[in-house]
Amino acid sequence: MPRSTVARINLDALRTNYRAACERSGGAKVMAVVKADGYGHGIARVASALADMAPKFAVACIEEAWAIRAAGHAQPVVLLQGVHAAGDLADCVHSNFEPVVHGEQQLAWMEQSGDAPTFWLKVNTGMNRLGFRGDALPAVMTKLEKMGAAPKLQGFVGHFACADDASSTMTLAQTANFETATAPWPTLMKSVGNSAAHFIPGQPLFDWSRPGIMLYGGSPIVGKTGPQLGLEPVMSLEAPLITTRVVKAGESVGYGAGWVAERDTRMGMVAIGYGDGYPRHAGTDTPAAIAGRRIRLIGRVSMDMLAVDLSNVSEAREGDLVELWGRTVGIDEVASCAGTISYELLTGLTSRVPRVSQ
Ligand SMILES: Cc1ncc(COP(=O)(O)O)c(C=O)c1O
């Protein structure tokens, strides 16, 4: 019998969140971002659940696009990082993958290949990770025309640096840069918005939006949880209590002996740890739940287990399931206790934890 540590994936919630993205997209079509193994939920499972709704998928790299094809889905797949080798361009042509071209190297590969796939150009509007600056676009467009690739250009993509921060003016400035840079080519499409941009009043999302984390129920906005934004948690992470005991006042629990009981305390050990991707930096008082009642972690998270305080769930017994995040305990809360974001928790869950569709 395998241990009952498991991530339950609620595909109805995923579909509900996709619909929420469509409702918030201001008429833009919505490509579902399913990179990093569908943000840890399983790319094939997620693509299959969204296949009849999402007209395009977006991934980071070609391997992830292959996984969508292997799951039997024929939609165009945008490669947000473009290709990593010249030879991949021919695969893009044959497989209906749409690479983003973000730099000179990729342009040179396109010129060599002679047969361009449908593609997008990345505009650097201030993020300064990838893309051509606005003032370089006319020269890039001339090159594309010369090599005969211009007719395959779908449009322009940008990416926001601070859309998660409602008080930042950077998103407005980046949008203005993007509009100025792309104005000479009004018939080409535009895509700028990740999940956070769906929650910024008045933010144009142009032709295509690109939500990721909101599809999975995680919050894209600093200081808000997914449920506060009307999103439904998709993953419920649970693990069994494998023992319970009373630690006496003055005794400690686990590595580092950092948590010491102030009074006799009934506690339990839960079969999940950082070897499963549960964050080691989640310290004492990080919430968890048993049967819908909130409990708290105590002491340091180990590789394969962690300790919880059972003081307020006196009926808890070995074998009971503990929710680490899900409907009772929001993943954004756990992330905040661990000094990180839900994206890292979801994508960091290891292969030791089976994902089970519901
Ligand atoms: C270019 C690009 N677009 C869209 C997304 C989706 O972002 P989010 O998960 O914040 O919605 C990402 C994710 O990192 C991205 O890199």
Please provide a written account of the structure.
By secondary structure, this protein is of the alpha/beta class. The protein folds into two domains: 11-219, Alanine racemase (TIM Barrel, Alpha-Beta Barrel), CATH 3.20.20; 235-357, Lyase, Ornithine Decarboxylase, Chain A, domain 1, CATH 2.40.37. Helix content is 25%, strand content 23%. It is built from ten helices and 20 strands. The strands form four sheets. Strands 3, 4, 5, 6, 7, 8, 9 and 10 form an eight-stranded parallel beta sheet that branches. Strands 12-15-18-17-16-19 form a six-stranded antiparallel beta barrel. Strands 2-11 form a two-stranded parallel sheet. Helix 1 (11-23) packs across helix 3 (43-50) and helix 3 (43-50) packs across helix 4 (62-70). It starts with 5 loop residues before the first strand and ends with a strand. The mean pLDDT is 97. Residues 33, 80, 159, 194-196, 210-214, 220 line the site of pyridoxal-5'-phosphate (PLP).
Distinctive features:
6-stranded antiparallel beta barrel, TIM Barrel, 358 residues, 20 strands, Lyase, Ornithine Decarboxylase, Chain A, domain 1, 8-stranded parallel beta sheet, binds pyridoxal-5'-phosphate, alpha/beta
Secondary-structure class: alpha/beta
Number of strands: 20
Broad shape: elongated
Radius of gyration: 23 Å
CATH class of the largest domain: Alpha Beta
Q: What is the quaternary state of this protein?
A: single chain
Beta-strand content estimate: 15-25%
Q: Could you report the average pLDDT, rounded to the nearest whole number?
A: 97
Bound molecules: pyridoxal-5'-phosphate
Order of helices and strands: EHEEHHEHEHEHEEHEHEEEEEEEEEEHHE
Query: Mind telling me the CATH superfamily name of the largest domain?
Result: Alanine racemase
CATH topology of the largest domain: TIM Barrel
Counted by DSSP, the helix tally is: 10
pLDDT < 50 stretches = none
Which CATH architecture of the largest domain would you pick?
Alpha-Beta Barrel
**N/C terminus separation:** 20 Å
Helical residue percent band: 25-40%
